[in-house]
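Lab channel / #folding
Pinned by the channel admin:
"Please post every new chain as: sequence first, then the structure tokens as a reply. Keep commentary short and put observations after the output so the thread stays searchable."

First post following the new format, from NK:
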Amino acid sequence: MKDTVAAIATHPRFRAACDTMRAEHDRTVEDIIRLTEIPAPPFGEEARAAAYLAMLQQHGLEEVEQDEAGNVMGRRRGFGNGETLVVAAHLDTVFPAGTDVRVRREGTKLFAPGVGDDTRSLAVNLAFLRALDAAGIRTRADILFVGDVGEEGLGDLRGVRHLFTKGRHAGKIDAFLTVDSPEVDRIVTGGVGSKRYRVVFRGPGGHSFGAFGLVNPMYAMAEATRGIGAIQVPRTPQTTHCVSIVSGGTSVNAIPNEVRIEVDLRSRAPAELARIDAEFRAIVERAVAQENATRDTRDGTVSAEIIPIGDRPAGGTAHDNPIVAAATAAVAYHGYTVSYEDSSTDANIPMSLGIPALRIGSGGRGGRAHSLEEWIDVEREESLRGMSASLLTILAAAGAELD
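Reply from TO:
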């Protein structure tokens, strides 16, 4: 694969593609700003999706469409037998509706919520398209460019999940690359699985003084939270748990009749995730039983309802897979020190289905992701270096024909 990547990288057509990205760097930055300033909160990506759909249409792709989940996409036709490589970036951000998403520029840095995760990647994928067309590069595989919804948080990967399981392309995708966040040197080959729950504890409630002694769902919730915190997890494969949100109650002088926690369970290994999931459920059951045995149930008992709010499958792409070899060689060719990571990205879905998939970077640098001070650096040379590495990965994975 090193020889294949080097042959592509030194070919005049690839150099022409890189020259196009250089010449259009300012346009790429303008696309980043334009898209960033279109709000795309969780479950509210419609405006940005409409804008990106129009941009895909302007770039001359075939089969430009929006599917039932809200994903937008278009196909760059290859010359082969119909194999399809998806190159995706997600439309949504973690920030709620009403967040100020105006871009502030300081030198070569752009500051705005969501500017690096993942808006830059949407613009970079458009730059890849223009570069390929200008250089006249053909690929054996079709490349399906996708702007997908629901990658973040409670979106639960719904866009890519639909693409692979229910959409018209389901069963027809051979490999997948998600361009997500700037870091090109960090290739995500492992998909961290997660299960997320809202646990609602209910009880009869009552006056904090007059009904003292009745069962209290808050105490059951507290005992469950303590138990979850005590779950033992291995360092390898990395496995974690977190009680992240607590809510409920009505008044300082009332035994609550309903309280809630939200719980995040994660592991790289499906078996470990299943183990801590079972232990979590047993802990909740024991906490409820203990509260009902400890206090008065004359007006009713405490109960707990476990409501799933997220389920991201674990998976991975083996390091000897050709798509990993392509990314490794392309990134190393550009002078980066390659590292492999596990994360939770759109690539989880194809990984869990046994389809080769990676997360690659959009180039440049960035920081403070998921904060109001999120930033990227669009300095020309480092940005183009990273973009060139990722474009080279795409071409190696798609089977570029340059002669």
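NK: The CA atoms of residues 139 and 202 lie 59 Å apart.
TO: also worth noting, The longest strand covers residues 193-202.
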